[in-house]
Amino acid sequence: MKKTVITVVGKDSVGIIAKTCTYLADNQINILDISQTIVDGFFNMMMIVDVAASKTEFGTMVDELEKLGEEMGCIVKAQREDIFDKMHRI
Amino acid sequence: MINIYEVLETNEMIEKENLDVRTITLGISLLNCIDTDIDRLCDKIYERITTTAKDLVSTGQAIEKEYGIPIVNKRISVTPIALVGGAACKTPEDFVKIAHTLDRAAKTTGVNFIGGYSALVSKGMTKSDELLIRSIPQALAGTDFVCSSVNMGSTKTGLNMDAVKMMGEIILETAEKTKEKDSIGCAKLVVFCNAPDDNPFMAGAFHGVTEADEIINVGVSGPGVMRKALESVQEADFGQLCEKIKKTAFKITRVGQLVAREASKRLGIPFGIIDLSLAPTPAIGDSIADIFEEMGLQRAGAPGTTAALALLNDQVKKGGVMASSYVGGLSGAFIPVSEDQGMINAVTDGALTLEKLEAMTCVCSVGLDMIAIPGNTKQATISGIIADEMAIGMVNQKTTAVRLIPVIGKDVGEIVEFGGLLGYAPIMPVNQFDCSAFINRGGRIPAPIHSFKN
Question: Shortest CA distance to B21 belongs to which of B71, B64, B60?
Answer without folding.
Answer: B71
